[in-house]
Amino acid sequence: MPTPDRTSLGAIVAAGRDILEAAGLAGLTMQAVADRVGVRAPSLYKRVRNRDDLVRLITEATFQDLGEQLATTGAGLDPRRDLAELARAVRAFAHARPVGYQLIFMPRAGGPSTEALRHAVGPVMRVAENLAGEQHALEAARTITAWANGFISMELSGAFQLGGDLDQAYEFGIARLTDALAGPPPR
Amino acid sequence: MPTPDRTSLGAIVAAGRDILEAAGLAGLTMQAVADRVGVRAPSLYKRVRNRDDLVRLITEATFQDLGEQLATTGAGLDPRRDLAELARAVRAFAHARPVGYQLIFMPRAGGPSTEALRHAVGPVMRVAENLAGEQHALEAARTITAWANGFISMELSGAFQLGGDLDQAYEFGIARLTDALAGPPPR
DNA sequence: GTCTATATTTCGATAGAC
DNA sequence: GTCTATCGAAATATAGAC
Q1: pLDDT per residue over A54-75, tens digit each?
Q2: What nucleotide is nearest B3 when CA is compared to C1'?
Q3: What is the 3-state secondary structure (H, E, C) of B8-72?
Q4: B49: Cβ under 7 Å from strand D?
Q5: Is residue A177 less than 8 Å (CB to CB) from chain B?
Q6: DSSP A158
Q7: According to DSSP H, which parts of B72-136 are helical?
């Protein structure tokens, strides 16, 4: 009888995500993952092609989580309120998994499948369309996404160094963006 | 008579910046820099403490360049026009040096000196104050910066995958943000 | 499927002669 | 200041026994 399974792909990905948050992308080594799941490093290669593959799996799992988080948010009747809730949900997610969040937006060979992307961006597109109209939905969604992701990325990287209250600044951005997108279309 | 200088700190940093753009941060090895400046790798350590130090110098030089680029932009009389010019200037800079630009916003130990930061952000603060008023200058500047940087970062990382014209989306964001910040302040 | 052992590669950094 | 020579430290990945 062969040796029974001592780990699983799910456990490996989960361990990888924990290590990623605790030690950063550079700290995500095959050895560290093996230690955490309780096997030797070479055994990981039975379930994962290589490290890049593991990073990709972790990124996709994180992206999927974000999508599910947003799916349960901002589906109300008031698009202005929905936008605010979506924006706060994204930021909360990023605060909970800062490294994983930033990993999503890193340039890499095999980006997220367009399917997964539509799933995660869906709620934002809906709100954008309700606010700015069908014709400007994509541009409005990109404005929202760019602002939120930019704010969060800068916050996480410590780029806001001039003091002030960041929570307040985020709410300020929400309020102004909402007014801007809900306002009369240009021209 | 000792051997004459065969390179300089400036040449090393300049070579590092070129390599960074051509081969990414991982490709920025001491060996690659040495090859490009025409010395052996150990010689670099006479002018640079270690690799991290070199990366820091490159980041600061890039940040300085960005600041100078913005200093000559958007100092006109019309804050709406100034904001548009500033936003376009940042994006043009990022397109010219994508890796260096993203390096600026990476979390690192010794962030840019507050002095260098004020220099680079100065023009944005001025425009924000002219648009949104003194009381909301910082928040407005952060909204602008977050949106522009978020848009550019996502663009550079290939995160915009749903088609559409990105130039147009950027102009859309400029127009809407300008209206939003110049509009009546939220009481 | 897991293990031990090891190959490979790469890179950062130092020592000491000239 | 530059060089040759080399160390030392990782980390990825493979081979083959059990």
Answers
A1: 999 999 999 999 999 999 997 8
A2: D1
A3: CHHHHHHHHHHHHHHHHHHHCCHHHHHHHHCCCHHHHCCCCCCHHHHHHHHHHHHHHHHHHHHHC
A4: no
A5: yes
A6: T
A7: 79-96, 98-104, 114-132
